Amino acid sequence: MLRALHETMPDLYPFIHQAYAAESMLQFGEFVVRSQMGPQQGDPLGPLLFCLPLQPALRSLISGFRIGYLDVLSLGGRPEDVGHGMDIILGLESTQGIRLNRQKSEILAGEQFEEKTFEDFKRVTKDSISLLGAPLCKGTALDKALQDHSEKLEQAMVDMRRLPTQGALMLIRSCFGAARLTFLLRTTQCWEHPLLRTMDEQMRSGLEAIVNIRLSDIQWTQATLPIRERGLRIRRLQMLASSTYLASVASARNLGSAILQSEDWQDAFKDEILSARRTTLPSGALETITAQKIWDRPLIEKDISEVWASATDPLNRARLGAVTSAHAGDWMAAFPIASCGLCLTDEAVRVAIGLRLGLDLCEPH
User: Fold this and answer.
1) What pTM, to 2 d.p., does this model score?
2) Which residues fall within 8 angstroms of residue 64, CB to CB, at 6 or more apart?
3) 92 Cβ partners below 8 Å, 6+ apart?
4) Predicted pLDDT of residue 25
5) Fewer CB atoms inside 10 Å of the end CB: C or N, the chain?
C-alpha cells in the first residue's frame, strides 16, 4: 500500500507513512488488537489507500468490460478473457491478502456455459442482476427493490403517527420518500413504474393521518412543491423520477464514454423520457445539463400554474401570494428543540399547514 502510494502520490507519502509504517494498537477493553494490514476503518483516505495497490492488477485485465468500485469488481467479455481476469484476481490473495468471496459472486452467462472457475458463483438472469445496489434492467430486481422501499415506507408512516407532528413532518421530508429513493431514481429505469404511484399515495395518506387533515388533489399538488414555492417539500416520486435520471445520465456522460470507449453512446431510456417530456424540457443543450434542479424546474412551474389556476377567489389568491413572502416557511426548517422554544403543538402544526394549503380547518357537525 505504501509502495503504491509512493509511486503515484509521493507528496502525500510522508503523512501516510507516519500513520501506517508501524502497526497500530487498538484498545478493546482489557485487550489490545494489533492492526497490521490495510487502512484503518474510518480513515478518510482509506478508500484511496485500498484502491491504489489494486490498480496495476485492474490495468492488466484484458476483458472487454472491466470496472471496479473499491472491492466490487465486474468483468464482462469472452469466456477466456474473463477467465484470465479471474486468475489475476485469485492471485491477489497471495500478493495482497485480498480474498474473493465466492458466496457474494455472481455470473451472468448462457445455460450451456460451464466453467469450473465459476462453479460456486450464483447464476443470475438479465432482469435480476444488480450492480452496487442498482438494478441494471427492468424486471425482477427493480420490482423487488421498489417493493422493499414501499413496505418500509408504509411501516414508517404508521410508526410516525406516534411522534409529535412537527418532528414527523420533518422526517417525511428529509428521511423517507424521495430522500430515501434518490439513488434508485438516478441509477435505474424506474420512470413510470407503478410502485412510484403507490409510494406517492402512501406519503399522501401518511401525511393526512399524521397532521389530521384531508387533502384534495390540488392541495396535495401544492404540498409537494418546494417550501419557497408554497409547498411542504414532500416531493412526488413520479414527478422526480425523470429529472433525477436525466441529470444522472448527463453527469455520467463522459465517464460512460470512457468505459465504453465510445464518444457517442446512447441511452434508449433517456430518449424515451425526453420524448414524453417534450413540452416540459429546459432550454439549452440537454446533454450538458447535469443539475437536477434545472430538469425539475419546468415540472415545478407546471404544478405552480395548476395551483394558481385553482385559486379563483380573492381570498385564496391572497393566501398563495402571502405564503411566498420572505420567511413564511421558516417554521418548517426549525428543529423541534424544546429547550430553545422551537416546539410547536400538534394543533399549531395542523393550523399552520391548513392556512398554507387552504384547507377547511373546521367542519360543522
Assistant:
1) 0.82
2) 76, 77, 78, 81
3) 54, 57, 98
4) 87
5) C
